[in-house]
Amino acid sequence: MSRGRLPVLVVVAGLLLAGGLADRAGRPSTTRAVALAVGSGAAPASATSSTWYCTGAHARPDGDAVGTVVLVNAGRRVLRGRVTVVPDKGSRRSVPVRVPAAGRAGVRLADVVTADNASALVEMDGGQVVAELVTRGPKGDSATPCASSTSDTWYFADGATTRDAAEVLMVFNPFPEDALVDLSFSTEQGRAVPEALAGLVVKGRGMLAVSVGDYVRRRAAVSTIVTSRVGRLVVARLQVFDGTGDVPRTGVSLALGAPDPRAVWYFPEGFAGDGTTERVHVFNPSAREARIEIEVLLDQGEADPVGLTVPAVSRVTFTVNEEPRVPPNVGHAIVVRATNGVAVVAERTVEALPPSARTGLAITLGATRAASRWAFAAGEPDAAVEEWVTVLNPGARAVTVSVTALDGEKRVRVPGLQRLRVPARGRLPIRLADHIARPVPSVVVQATGPVVVERDLYRASAPGRAMAMGTPL
Fold it and tell me: pLDDT tens digits for 201-215?
């Protein structure tokens, strides 16, 4: 499609213009930033507007991570709005979008602008809409929830700039005023504070792509702090592995950073063995030592928690495959807890090579809270992709969960996925194609108590893993 044409919607054709979504100063709405500072979440049905920040994918057809913003409307009325695509070079451009009740729509970034990298600002005229940024490319797929609030600090526990890796930080400033940011890193060889990355200017309503390997070269373990002296931002990390390393890992991961360290991190899906290596990286950005406890909640049997110490401004990595308390090839969830009052940031890395049937790589930020309703915008498009939803119940009592498909203005209670029991401190993996005909639509998972829900997409015959937490409703 040529640059001059409007983008094709992923599911719903036809876009209708909606205006009046910015305030009088011309800035995106920040009404919900205070309420959602802990993490992303959808605005309530009573909201008159909602805003999402989808940060950092490729906006050229030949990119490794060509991005599409996918929206789902979990509410009961049609929503209208606009998606403004902001490239790292060139002019931003807005297009209208319409999302029917219980329906889905999407905008491909490369159909709106042509640029190496781009971010998107989504402004809608109501609540209960969820936004995800999905990427596709020859090295694999990725999917991440968009952010519903901004922050002046962002943290990443993992990253790599080895010869087979490219790490790019996507810094998005959706506001009219310029922002001033500093970047610092913690690596296996100590701290790195490049002078060239101090006081970077991020233009108002603009974005900046920073190639970490240009400043921190040939490092296998890179944790990052992005701090804004002036302004509030959204920052994501695009990590690409090309398969040329000593371990031939190939994959793409796009993930938001954490706006702040937290005391608890949840990872509902876990598996180690048969070519799959699972690691949990815990970064301590503070000036005090952190003590943590890692719980592995096994599908079969029990494992004692593992206690670790994380030095100040450093990270430790827990490799599940190397822990004798965790048997291989047994599904599990992981909970990371800070035990001495020093909060941390936790990410999970999964690298899968043959003989694993699901090859690829995924780097996933954990969830920091439980909720009773979760939504997923992107879905399984065809038989080449397999989609799983995993529900973790971290509480002391069993809960039941039900899955509803949002299938183009219809809400369908999925047969076989109603009132399923999830035991206390247990989990329930669900393969959606066993219950829903392809293409799998957007889904909402509802529980009788607080749970954490993750969605994982696997390519059937090529490298590709997209693993991400859902969005609370």
Answer: 999 999 999 999 999
